[in-house]
Amino acid sequence: MSDRNSSLDEYRRKRDFAQTTEPSDQTAAPRKGKALSFVVQKHAARALHYDFRLELDGTLKSWAVPKGPSLDPHDKRMAVQVEDHPIAYGSFEGTIPPGQYGAGTVIVWDRGTWTPIGDARAGYRDGKLKFELKGEKLQGLWTLVRMRGKGSERQQPWLLIKERDTFARPAAEYSVVDAEPDSVVKTRRKAQKTAFPLMLAPQLATLVRTPPASGNWCWEMKFDGYRLLARADADGDVRLFTRNGHDWTSKLKALAQAIEALKLKSSWLDGEIVIQGEHGAPDFQALQNAFEVARTAQIVYYLFDLPFHAGEDLRGHPLVERRERLRTLLDDDESKVSPRLRFSEDFHAEAAHLLASACRLRMEGLIGKRADSPYQSSRSPDWIKLKCTQRQEFVIVGHTDPKGSRAGLGSLLLAVHDDAGTLRYTGNVGAGFSEASLRKLKSELDGLAVKTAAFEGTAPKGAHFVKPKLVAEVSFAEWTKEGRVRQAVFHGLRGDKPPAAITREKPAAAPKTATKNRSKPTVGRLTHPERVIDPSTGITKLEVAEFYAAVAPRLLPHLKHRPVSLVRGPDGVDGALFFQKHGDTLRIPGLKQLDPALDPGHPPLLEIPTRTALLGAVQMNVLELHTWNATSNMIEKPDRICFDLDPGEGVAWPRVQEAVTLVRTMLDELALQGFLKTSGGKGLHIVVPFRRGPGWEAVKGLSQAIVQHLAETLPKQFVAKSGPKNRVGKIFVDYLRNGRGATTVAAWSARARPGMGVSVPVTWDELPTLTGGAHWTIRSIDARLAEPDKAWDGYEAARKQTLTTAMRVLDYLPDGT
Predict the structure, then answer these.
(1) 503-536 tens-digit pLDDT
(2) Which region holds residue 94: left if phi is over 0, alpha if psi is between -120 and 50, else beta?
(3) Contacts (Cβ under 8 Å, ≥6 apart) of 734
(4) Among the residues of 100-183, which ranges form H helices?
(5) Which CATH number does the domain 190-387 belong to among 3.30.470.30, 3.20.190.10, 3.40.50.10380, 3.40.50.1370?
(6) What is the pLDDT of residues 532-542, one digit of tens each?
(7) Which 3-state string (H, E, C) describes 666-679?
(8) How far apart are CA 344 and CA 331, in angstroms?
(9) Catalytic residue IDs
(10) H/E element, 607
């Protein structure tokens, strides 16, 4: 017994048992026989970790495991040996008060018995302990291996490894600490007022492509911030936890005080903390900066759920009841409710309309919640999220050198874990940084530098590699077929999400029970509707047909009386594409063949005048539609100019937005009104309607003169020569689309490329909100279609403008003038 007492001396020395409720002595007798006890305690101290404890020789041999156990044999989890604990500690749950060693919340995450494989004492002494666990969460064979270190180290590092057996599971498929975050003690209690959990995992939303068309849903704005859960204990003391259980109370003392003023007892609140930017929308980077400089006074806590109140477990109550009680708490006495605490309002309207409004307001998107759903500590289809742009977290695995006057770094190398748990390179992000953030990131990354890459894939030449320790939040236009992100923008670092949990987010279909009666446009006869057209997204031929059926009322006016060229993809966007402007061999119902005199010496040009012809074209694997700048009744007199702003390699999206603004400014100087649309691809299009008069050569010559003037005036931004080599770092404004027979993709047409973006008319006011030329895809277009088609209001009136002023200002005299 004396040996046991001496081994617990350090444990006792570190604690003031007048302050902490941790057991002070060995009040439990050691177990007899081979089955010894083990416990894993989840400890939300200064840093969240898991305390792994094995009973041996009358005490609990203990290790702190920062990331917690993993069921994947490939994961070798660091386990730092700490002082022995008394066996009585195995049943301890509670909050260690501030100022005490290990201050924070402790729960019994798992418990059971363990059986050593071989001599336990010898294995422990020699640094290789093999054993079998029989717990409520952890089972099967495990090994603890001591790493080589200095013999004088007070806290020796070990590795905790899951052995290969029937209980092993790949990390990319399943994380036991994420899937089962709660106490095993709590689950054995009866659901009554005393069953108040010391820790609570949040309910998470499932990403979906489209909103459900039926069902009773409540819609809230999706905040661009950090998820935060607040626990008010029986004595009113408040603790604040991130979604992963990190205790952030010390970082948010003023916010904790604001919640304490509500005088809640035995309650849990759920919400999101944000900082509002200059436009009123949450600013994630500002939130991150607030923590970095320890200035959190501007942080606002939007509350949206009340899982527990006054000791009562509300998780089984319908969402609307929980939220009504929460609203009452915040409205009951406004004098004691801090302006830092706000109720997250919900909206009962069409999700498509709400999403469009959220995007215009520069919000991240929408959260939908079933009105009658319970609260579940897991990811659930009862909560869904719709995003305005593609946006997720990536692991930072390296960086490139800066170019030109830029300081710090050029871009960050990004990666995600694949299904096997391997880090895969997914491209880089070079936009969205301030000078301060570039310097700070460079400093942090220098401290993580390594010589070899920690990921699979080919990185840019000259890249510098780092340990995969930091997580970045990034928005982007689309995934390429190679698994790279396009037009990426950096929003900040995520300190609340571990790198090991970062995978590629794949949106699910809307909940089945909510889409049972969903009305979809009829598409008529369609062969092989299940054929995958876009492997990068899984878009099928049926989805393409449904898209064109939905946009037909908006697309057909842009096709009216105009010769059309068809881009066909029998083998999908990754196969060979065929550009077809003559239709003598096509058998499409309703397809109109124009007068052969319009294009002498060739088969007739084509026109798609009706919905029937449009859907018939889809049946023949047509993916894109391109139109002439003239109508068939006056083919030699164009009635518009199209400028295609095509960014070269290395041009970030904000530069494209700036460039299109510069082109618009020049058009204003030339007394020309232009109309903006996304290209559905990389860039943007400006369409300038005018009164017919000049012929093809004059119009093409004028458009070339405009582009040359831009390139001469702003040579760092624009180039007037086509070709990839000429466009590196610059934007080519393509005037070649304005010659006879040249075409431009029609407004509301899809594009035959990964992601299947859509060319959409937009207002000039919407330019700052666009995330890329493929801001909308055929899977995200519903929100746009729910809005009135008024982006190009004024187009018909602008057809009265002439090119005379532009020719005079540019001193351009076409032949024959």
Answers:
(1) 898 777 666 543 333 356 677 678 888 888 988 8
(2) left
(3) 643, 644, 645, 646, 722
(4) 120-126, 176-179
(5) 3.30.470.30
(6) 898 888 888 99
(7) HHHHCCCCCEEEEC
(8) 13
(9) 222
(10) strand 606-607
